[in-house]
Write a structure and sequence with these properties.
Layout lengths: L1 E7 L6 H10 L4 H11 L5 E9 L2 E9 L8 H10 L4 H22 L14 H16 L4 E4 L2 E3 L4 H6 L5 E3 L9 H7 L10 E9 L10 E9 L2 E13 L7 H10 L4 E9 L3 E10 L4 H11 L6 E19 L2 E10 L2 E7 L1 H11 L3 H8 L10
Parallel strand pairs: 1-4, 5-6
Antiparallel strand pairs: 1-8, 2-3, 7-8, 9-11, 9-12, 10-11, 12-13, 13-14
Helix pairs in contact: 1-5, 3-4, 4-5, 10-11
Length: 375
């Protein structure tokens, strides 16, 4: 079982809202105090205020720092480099600020080695970003997921950050997603998932008017190593198509994100020899798949259904073998390794390099090419 977080952006998200919710989930206030001390931000401090969102009680963080304090990119990089944070967290913080710098420069058309942020250069933004990555490590979070982003009065940088993400415009009169929240949450998958709910943390913003405005919740859960997914299966019967188009069609479908594509020969009405085109995809790419099929086949109609899919959690490792380096895919169930397969493309390259049959590669590796089990 692994810990996950689901960021449910009910009314929006900002750095302070995320931090407040993470505190409610168990991120220690002492860790936050040590972080602020470690960053050596003179005059910077914080306190928590108890607030209610509707009938839900939560905490809101309030920062105190000199009003004119504004840090440049180089100053931020120096502060982070000199902290006692571990290397992994430092890299995540610096990557976050590098992305913000790149976006701000693109939006405002100003490039400088010592780029100076506006609000994002203030101490509270630095504390929010640094504490976010520190909290995920302290809480031992393995994966994060995110809901659709509710947008209202977004900053240009936020719009740039959230390109290719699922959003909905709400019409609210406040800035629902700040650039800080956008850059922190951007890379988390937006998808349906099954998990065991363990804990909920709430975070409130500055514009609490109703139960759903300027308010978020982060749900902590546990997910087993079997990944449960919803996938779409598209099917099309083709009785009047030139089979020579299939190679190009499959290339286009895979390029646009198809999970799998296969073609079956079938007999249709009037005993016509035909083809059944089957495409597996996720819902996000469904429209792309339909467009390709309509454009590049003779069909006038498409049918599709949603299915549940369970798959093993897996990872790739690179192994040294007598024939050279080969990637292996390892599958896990309930935390235990149950199978590992050599990657086909690597084995094919090895066979070509040594001018030997592909099956001999598997034989020399001492592996069944389909499966290897371990006790």
């Amino acid at each position: 079982m692994s810990k996950i977080l689901y960021f449910d952006l009910i009314g929006g998200a900002s750095g302070d809202m995320l931090l407040s919710a993470l505190i409610n989930l168990g991120f220690k206030r002492s860790s936050l105090r040590n972080l602020v001390k470690n960053l050596k931000l003179r005059g910077a401090g914080f306190k928590f205020k108890e607030v209610f969102v509707g009938h839900i009680k939560t905490n809101k963080i309030i920062f105190n720092f000199p009003p004119k304090m504004n840090l440049s990119f180089l100053e931020i990089r120096t502060l982070i480099t000199l902290t006692k944070l571990n290397k992994k967290i430092k890299e995540k913080i610096l990557k976050t600020y590098s992305r913000l710098k790149e976006i701000e420069e693109k939006v405002h058309g100003h490039k400088s080695r010592d780029f100076r942020f506006s609000h994002l250069g203030k101490p509270d933004a630095l504390i929010e970003i640094a504490s976010f990555w520190l909290a995920l490590e302290e809480l031992e979070i393995k994966e994060c997921f995110c809901s659709t982003f509710p947008l209202s009065n977004p900053a240009p940088a936020t719009l740039e950050l959230l390109k290719d993400k699922k959003v909905r415009f709400t019409g609210s009169d406040y800035e629902s997603i700040t650039p800080t929240a956008g850059v922190l949450l951007k890379d988390f998958p937006q998808k349906e998932l099954d998990f065991t709910l363990k804990k909920v943390g709430y975070g409130a913003g500055d514009f609490i008017k109703t139960e759903k405005e300027d308010f978020l919740r982060i749900i902590m859960g546990e997910k087993d190593d079997t990944v449960k997914e919803k996938i779409i299966k598209i099917e099309v019967n083709l009785d009047d198509i030139n089979p020579q188009v299939f190679d190009y069609l499959l290339e286009l479908l895979f390029k646009e994100g198809a999970l799998d594509v296969y073609i079956t020969q079938v007999i249709m009405k009037k005993s016509r020899p035909s083809f059944l085109l089957s495409v597996l995809t996720d819902r996000i790419n469904l429209d792309k798949m339909k467009e390709i099929i309509f454009k590049h086949t003779t069909t006038f109609g498409i049918r599709y259904s949603e299915f549940n899919r369970d798959r093993l959690n897996y990872k790739f490792i690179l192994k040294d073998t007598p024939l050279g380096k080969i990637r292996f895919r390892q599958g896990f169930l309930k935390g235990s390794l149950i199978k590992e397969n050599p990657e086909y493309e690597d084995c094919k390259k090895i066979a070509s390099k040594h001018n030997i049959p592909l099956v001999e590669v598997y034989t020399q590796l001492g592996l069944n090419p389909k499966i290897k089990r371990r006790d």
